[in-house]
Amino acid sequence: LLIFAVPYIVLGLNVILDAVHGLAGKQFLDEKFLMSVASVGALAVGEYAEAVLVMLLYRLGELLQSIAVGKSRRSIADLMDICPESAELETADGIKQVSPDEVHVGDIFVVRAGERVPLDGIVVEGSSSLNTAALTGESAPRDVAAG
């Protein structure tokens, strides 16, 4: 019994305390409460190893979930960083720097060699290799031409 008490307390104390706080907040079926019931039930029937294993697997699952969420957030942040903050809109007065949100369907915007493409569109004049990473996620340049 003592050999299982230390790992159970280390792994399960925070989970059980969070479950108790959840019950006080009227959250009866949250995951911490269910894990607590499962592990305390295993303890009650004398299955100490299973009680520790329930807590160990639950905590391992939480760790893997937090790693996955962190990676997802970093990936989203990286994608946001590749989006250009402005577009060069062609107007009657010349070229004007605007937010991509201000460009409407039918507007013409200019993309020069080496620049990132801020919006989806059709090439109406010229040809080039463009960095379309902000639109497609692919870092390799794409050859484009009018049409």
What does this structure look like?
With about 150 residues, the protein is of the alpha+beta class. The protein has 2 domains: about 1-80, no CATH class; about 85-145, Calcium-transporting ATPase, cytoplasmic transduction domain A, CATH 2.70.150.10. Helices cover about 50% and strands about 15% of the residues. It contains 4 helices and 5 strands. The chain has helices spanning about 1-25, 30-45, 50-80, 135; strands at about 85-90, 95-100, 110, 125-130, 140-145. The strands form 2 sheets. A 3-stranded antiparallel β-sheet has the order 2-1-3, with no helix packed on it. Helix 1 (about 1-25) packs antiparallel against helix 2 (about 30-45) and helix 1 (about 1-25) packs across helix 3. The longest helix is centred in the middle third of the chain and has 35 residues, at about 50-80. It is rod-shaped, with a radius of gyration of 28 Å.
